[in-house]
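Why do we care about 3D structure at all? Because function follows from shape, and shape follows, mostly, from sequence. That is the central idea of this module. The next example makes it concrete: a single protein chain, its amino acid sequence, and then its structure expressed as tokens.
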Amino acid sequence: MKGVVCQQPGEINTVELSEPETKPGECLLQIRRVGICGTDLHAFAGNQPFFTYPRILGHEVSARIVDNDGQSSLQVGQDVVVIPYIPCGTCRACRLGKTNCCAELKVIGVHVDGGMQEFISYPADLLLPAEGLTVEEMAIVEPLCIGTHAVSRAAVTEGQWVIVSGCGPIGVGTIWAAKEAGARVIAIDIDPVRLAWCEKHLGVDHLVEANDHTLETLEDITHGDLADATFDATGIKGPMEAGVEYVGSGGSYVLVGLNKGHLAFHHPSLHAREISLLCSRNATRSDFELVIERLQTGSFPSDAYITHTEVFDKIPTGFEFWKD
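And the structure:
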């Protein structure tokens, strides 16, 4: 069978692989669709944390069950969403139900080989049916879960002010989750095209093109209150450090984006406003179930979210284009 392997930064090849062996408790899956996102592009560029080479990429996966080994309630021929986070089940985080930050977490396409291959064998308990969704929608469940988990971390409720900094794919999912919670959302980005997309497809309440006067603009919009919850989805040091100033007294600052370096915040400013500084990593099974349920209602603009498609054999040549 064929697979796509990132051999080292800047080098991706199509290779021949051995058929996977199915272990007890696993299902043999035929890959239907694989989402390509920032994680894959960062791996290609050589700046993805927690990554080793060579690696078969792909963690946003929809698949079809080819063999269930007679041990799973999932049916042969059924299309499923793959939860790409494989927890150890025994560490402190797992015992607390926080499998998304398992101490020994393995993410397919990052720590172990992922979905850019024709078949994989995968734990049946990490597969979810998603009746009524297209195979494309199944492949975007995972990135949408990132924002849904972040919004749940901040316990966003109806009528609150929410600011999302960074309107890429993860920021879009965060905005959608905040809107689903009934929040009033302000989107910040340096790209007016992305801001216009959020207004058109997500009904964002206010758009702010980032500049030297962003804080003053946010104060004007919120009548000085600023946000109940601010989310960084940029992963860039400057915006991540600036975003804490967009949080109102008693509010939460949630770091969704990931940066490899050190961040610095002015502690007296955080302390005076009693800001809760939160990190949001990956997602849990309940996030996946909620996103599937919401997608089934048609509330997300799936067709507009997917910007490009490519056939399997041309994936290696696509990365040079996609990274730009």
